Amino acid sequence: MEGGIMENSLDKTKDKRLPVWRRKLYRHLPITRWLPLYKKEDLLSDLIAGLTLGLTMVPQSIAYAALAGLTSQYGLYSTFMGGYVYFFLGTIKEVSVGPTSLMALLTFEFSKELPFEFVCLLTFMSGCVELLMGIFQFGFLVDFISAPVISGFQSATSVIIITSQLKGILGLRKVKSGRFLENIMNVIYKLPETRFSDVTLGICCCIVLLLLRRLKDIKLGKMTEKKMKIKKCLWFVSISRNAIVVLVCGCIAYYFHENESTPFLLSGKIPEGLPPFRLPRFSTEFGNRTYSFTEMCYEIGSGIFILPLVSVLANVTIAKAFSTGGSVDATQEMFTLGMCNILGSFVSSMPTCGAFTRSAVSNSSGVRTPMSGLFSGSLILIFLVFFSPYLYYIPRASLSAVLICAVIFMIDWKTCFLLWKANNKRDLVCFLGTCTACLALGVEIGLLVGVAINIAQLMYLWARPSISIEVKETKGGFYYYIKPDIGLFFPAVDFLRNEINKKCPGEIPFRA
Q1: Dist. CA 201–CA 396, nearest whole Å
Q2: How do the domains of the chain map onto residue ranges?
Q3: Which stretches within 136-222 are classed as H helix?
Q4: E strands, 313-388, where?
Q5: pLDDT (tens digit, 9 = 90+) per residue, 253-280?
Q6: Is the pTM of this model over 0.85?
Q7: Helix, strand, coil share (%) of the chain residues, nearest 5
């Protein structure tokens, strides 16, 4: 909302009449600049946005935990701390920090077949790296990841997530998730064990979710007061579709369970109550062996650096999309994300970052400030305290349907088509190269391949710049006006000399 409380409070960080220490306080602790301007009408808007967001996060977080290879409670543990930290440190009112499909997939990639202590340490180390990136202003590193690479990476991860959830839709037991081809082969191998009841439920959930997604776009003609109320109801049902589908499926499963029948694979029991607040373990025992801190970090591998880089990229991109005028304090966002993950690791959270879908829900709910994160986080805590036992009855097929319907629209066919149509071979190579590498080699190697393609293209431009040569006439004769399209770098010396000598025939050879 233009001219809102967050936008008006932003002026305080730029007011030169204020002492330097106060401007720094407003910048690094944003709550101090917008909370004094808070009004009652802001509270109502943030309450509605927070509760709506909480209803969206509950089923999604449970599904993301399953995607990461974790039990359901860890998804819920990962949802509330981000909202609380962002309440104090966040700069963009729409951003919602919590578990995402991308973070869940990367978490699984780097911690599969390892106990949760490794995931918790990964969350802590990711937060430390993000914090250091913010302190030392290493945000420029994300500039080496171009939009086509991001689109290719996002599309590939979406395809991998969809294939990894086929086991849930088909009701298959003990099917390992992995890379794209591994997921396909594992499902084909177990196909004879398909459960008809789970398939039916999963397909029905997908159909209902896709239909409810379109519900908010229904045109009601000329707006009247009654139609406005109907429109708001349709919008709320559409936004809460994940919670509605999971709740209905849970009730169906509960009914069958009470009648001593279990036609669906269920999520399983989870501990009641809140997670303990404690430091992550820096040593652990696993497989008749004690792992020290360095050995645990070695097992996690490059995930300590790749997860923070991807999460910072996602968070800054979302912040830019929703900020006024596209201006974002990237350093503060990295610092905030780091604190979200560091403190999140104290409550058994998996790695988190901002999610575009949740941010869009906040925006459409009329959010005014980061106070909404306080309400959504509190709703999650209430759910953990009072409703944890009922998570047992949620069918796995419904969670798989929620995930598939969430990521299917993240496959960026449009970008690929536009690049092909525009004959933009350079960016198309980035997109297809990243996407193919992620599917064939894994998401972490695929991202590095995409960055390598970007850097190779930059090096080619430095070594082979385009030049324009014009003949300029003066009273004393003429001269050649030579203009390269970019700055000159030493790899281009021989190329430029040859090009100039080639385009100026019969003249004195050019020497570098």
Answers
A1: 10
A2: 38-214+224-253+299-409, 413-463, 467-503
A3: 147-164, 166-170, 180-190, 196-213
A4: 353-354
A5: 999 988 888 898 888 788 888 999 999 9
A6: no
A7: 70, 5, 25
